[in-house]
Write a structure and sequence with these properties.
The protein has one domain (2-161): Aminopeptidase. It has helices at residues 11-24, 36-43, 94-108, 124-132; strands at residues 2-5, 50-55, 61-69, 78-85, 113-120, 136-147, 151-161. The protein is 28% helix and 36% strand. By secondary structure, the chain is α+β, with helices and mostly antiparallel strands. The protein is globular and about 40 Å long. A hairpin with an 8-residue loop joins strand 3 and strand 4. Bound molecules: coenzyme A (COA). Residues 21, 27, 83-85, 90-96, 116, 119, 123-126, 128-129, 132 line the site of coenzyme A (COA). Residues 21, 27, 83-85, 90-96, 116, 119, 123-126, 128-129, 132 line the site of coenzyme A.
Length: 162
C-alpha cells in the first residue's frame, strides 16, 4: 500500500467506489444521487485543499481522503477531512493507515487541529476509528441525519489537535 496525492487521472477509479458509498446513504451528508461533475468538484481539491489516494502494488486506487480548511481566514488553521475506502477493501486496515497518513500530512501542511463536522453516530466503524486516533466527540447534533433504515440519528462533531 502506498499513499500519494491524487491526480486527475485517478478520478475515474475514485468515482467508481465514491458513488457506491454516497448512494448507500448511511455515512455521508451528500445527495445519494449526486452527479459525477458535482462529486468531482467536492472531492478533488486544489491547494490549500488536498486529495490523497491509497494505491495497491498495481497503482489501483483502494481508498481516498480529502482535506481542506474547515473555515476561511482566521479559521483556516483547522482542517476538515473526508475518508472513503472502497467497500471491497473495507475492514482490512486501509482506513486506519490512510487516516494516519492524512493526519501526518495535515500536520505538515500547517494545520493545528482536525475537525469532522458530521460523523453519523450509527457509523460505528468510523466513530471507533476516529476515537482510537485521538478524536473526541465535542457534541452530537440530535436527529441531524436521516438514515435510510434507522430514521433520524445524530451527527457527531469530532475534533483532535495535530
Ligand atoms: C470508515 C472507513 C473509512 C474505515 O476504513 P476501514 O478500512 O474500513 O477500517 P479499518 O479496517 O482500518 O478499521 C479501522 C478501525 O475501525 C474500527 N472497526 C472496524 N470494523 C469495525 C466494526 N465492524 N465495528 C466497530 N468498529 C470497527 C476498529 O477500531 C478498527 O481498528 P482496529 O481493527 O485496528 O482495531 C471505511 O469503512 C469507509 O470508507 N466507510 C464508508 C465511508 C465512511 O464512513 N467514511 C467516514 C465518514 S466519517
Amino acid at each position: 500500500m502506498r499513499f500519494r496525492d491524487a491526480t486527475t487521472e485517478d478520478w475515474p477509479q475514485i468515482w467508481r467506489f465514491l458513488r457506491r458509498i454516497v448512494a448507500d446513504g448511511t455515512t455521508f451528508t451528500w445527495e445519494p444521487d449526486v452527479d459525477e461533475t458535482e462529486a468531482r468538484a467536492r472531492w478533488m481539491h486544489r491547494p490549500p485543499g488536498r486529495t490523497i489516494v491509497a494505491v495497491d502494488e498495481h497503482d489501483r486506487v483502494v481508498a481516498t481522503s480529502e482535506t481542506h480548511p474547515n473555515q476561511r481566514g482566521p479559521g483556516a488553521h483547522v482542517a476538515n477531512a473526508g475518508f472513503m475506502v472502497d467497500p471491497d477493501h473495507a475492514g482490512g486496515g486501509v482506513g486506519r493507515r490512510l487516516a494516519q497518513y492524512t493526519l501526518e500530512q495535515a500536520r505538515a501542511d500547517g494545520y493545528r487541529a482536525m475537525q469532522f463536522n458530521a460523523v453519523v453516530e450509527t457509523n460505528t466503524r468510523a466513530v471507533e476509528l476516529w476515537r482510537s486516533l485521538g478524536f473526541e466527540i465535542l457534541t452530537t447534533v440530535p436527529e441531524a441525519f436521516h438514515h435510510p433504515e434507522k430514521g433520524y440519528v445524530g451527527l457527531h462533531l469530532m475534533h483532535r489537535r495535530l
